[in-house]
Amino acid sequence: MNRLPRTLLARTFLLISLLLSIAVASWLGLFALSEKLPRAQQLAQLVVSVVNLTRAALVAAEPSRRHALLREMDEREGVRVLPVEATDRVEPPSDSRFQTRMRSIVTASLGADTRFASVVNGQRGIWVSFHLDPLPSAAPTGANTEDEFWLMLPGSRAEHDFPWHWVIWAVLVLGLALAVAWLIVSRVTEPLRALARAARELGRGQRPAALPERGSLELQQLAEAFNRMSEDLHRIDAERAETLAGISHDLRTPLARLRLDTELSVSDSVARAAMSADIEQMDTVIAQFLEFARGESEALQHDGEINMLAVEAAARARRAGISLAYFPGELPPGPLYPHALSRAIDNLLDNARKYAGGEIELHTRLDRTGERLIEVMDRGPGIPESESERLKRPFTRMENARSNAGGAGLGLAIVERIAHLHGGQLELRARPGGGLIACLRLPGVTPPDTARR
Fold this sequence. Notes:
CATH superfamily of the domain at 8-157: Sensor histidine kinase RisS, periplasmic domain
Strand order of the largest sheet: 1-5-4-3-2
Subcellular location: Cell inner membrane
Shape: rod-shaped
EC number: 2.7.13.3
Pfam families: HAMP, HATPase_c, HisKA, RisS_PPD
Helix content: 40-55%
CATH topology of the domain at 8-157: Beta-Lactamase
Strand content: 5-15%
Radius of gyration: 46 Å
Enzyme class: transferase
InterPro entries: 2C_sensor_his_kinase, HAMP_dom, HATPase_C_sf, HATPase_dom, His_kinase_dom, HisK_dim/P_dom, HisK_dim/P_sf, RisS_PPD
């Protein structure tokens, strides 16, 4: 089963091709079968006619002229007549359907004592025995062999040229049928391929162009339903972003007043610092909400440099007080959403700072499969392998040492969304020696047809 084509177009075309090939082969077989029986009947009638004419000629001819008559028949028609000898070395003919049918017709006309051979005394041909004086039907086989003769027709009379012209016509018809089948199947599957491409774009968070609603009724209904679903999702996403932005904006106004009142009204420096920290944490959560709700709308940059974005992110991290070591690798330019990818790298570095501490490493490199990797490594407590997928979901945090920092649990969800936007994925795996490796895996310079999810 692994050797079968994977696409619907190839599988359907393969099945139709197989069906048409079987139909043409069956038609040729039936033609050959139906053609053999009439040809056997025609040859049998020829043998009977030649035997009867030869017998009549020999009986009517003077005995002195019989030898000349037989020689003339051999020279003109290739028909030889020889007396049957007891020492003749005879090879019987084959038991093919053609030969069996021919012998049965000849026997019915010449009598049951008629004998057949394919080779007599080393000479190959169509050999048939006959008597100058036909025996009664009740006479035993082999009686009165003195007037029994062999009549030999050339073997070419039983041969038949293969009908290559019919085969050529069959191949031409089959080729035309396969071309039409390919056209029909491609027209049926093209809307499905367009739907698959649009579904991949929708899964990456993009808004695909509306599918053309044409073709058969079922395909029109499918395209119409997908377009309506895409519009509904876009509207819901816009409403969600607008709602979250409004709530976040409304919350930031009282937060600004609280920050000002704290600075002016609270005399205790310790209490003032604690209240300011709480306000900053609330402001960070609101910023994450806004970032998650905003989504991505920038244009795709087809010659983006990951290393350039990584250098800028490393500089921002160091200015924020993060101890960072950057290890750039050889990466070819490729299609990127630069602002989104910069935000993803910032989130990974900030996540490592919050939950791990210590020195953080940022690596960029090319995988053996040609994929581009951005890896952020720390020496924190890490996360269990069973929790790696759950932590990528929005508003999800762990109840362990990696969750001692503030936030709404949207940092990794934002990175996961940006990875899908590029057709890649975010991997969270344990680092040898302790810690965590957050790997942003992006497609190579030539992106695959299907986005990695």
